[in-house]
Amino acid sequence: MLREMAGGDRNALSALYQRTSAKLYGICLRVLGNESDAQDVLQEVYVTAWSKAEQFDPGKASPITWLAVLARNKAIDQLRRRKVTPDGLEAATEVADDAPSAYEIAESRQESGRLAGCLDELEDRAGAMIRRAFLEGASYPELAVREGVPLGTMKSWIRRGLQRLKGCLER
After folding, report:
1. Of 57, 53, 69, which Cα lies nearest the Cα of 3?
2. Radius of gyration over alpha carbons of the chain, in Å?
C-alpha cells in the first residue's frame, strides 16, 4: 500500500488507514494522554505517510513499524510543543534529562539479548510466528493466511511458543 501511495493512489491511503488507524491512534493516545491531541497527531501521521511514502524502505522495517515510529515521534513532538519553557538561566537547572541512564541502556540491551537468545531457542516456526506477530505487528489471521493454516492452529503455535519463551526468560 505504501508503494501505491507513493504513486499517488488515494485508495491505498484509505486502505492503509482502515488497517492501521486503531493501532496508531492507540500509540498517539498513550504518549499524549489526550484524545483531541491524539486525533490531531494521527492526522499528521497520515499526511506525512502520504507525502513520504516513497521514502519507506522495506529492508529497514515493516510498514507497521515504520508507521508506529512515525506516530510515536509525531506524538513526542506534540508533547514538546506543549511544554512552555521558562526564561532565565535559573530555569536551566530545573530541566530534567529524560534520556535513559547508562545503566538503563545497558540493562535494556541485556534484556534484548536475553529475548533474542530465547527466541532463537524456539523451533523455527514458533520463533518466526512470534517475531512476525509481536515485533512486526502482523495479526494472527494474517499469519494464518500467509502460512496456509487455520486460525486456531496459528493461535496454538504462537501460544505454545510464548509458553516456551516465558520458561526460557524465567531461567
Report:
1. 53
2. 20
How far apart are the C-alpha atoms of 135 and 114, rounded to whole Å? 15
Confidence of residue 74 (pLDDT cuts 50, 70, 90): very high
In degrees to the nearest 10, what's the CA dihedral of 131, 134, 136, 140?
90
Print the SS3 string covering the chain.
CHHHHHCCCHHHHHHHHHHHHHHHHHHHHHHHCCHHHHHHHHHHHHHHHHHHHHHCCCCCCCHHHHHHHHHHHHHHHHHHHHCCCCCCHHHHHHCCCCCCCHHHHHHHHHHHHHHHHHHHHCCHHHHHHHHHHHHCCCCHHHHHHHHCCCHHHHHHHHHHHHHHHHHHHHC
Instruction: Dig out the grid coordinates for 47 from the structure.
Output: 499526511
Cell 535559573 identifies what position?
A: 90
The mean pLDDT value for 93-122 works out to: 71
Residues 131-168 pLDDT 10s:
888 877 888 899 999 999 999 999 999 999 999 988 88
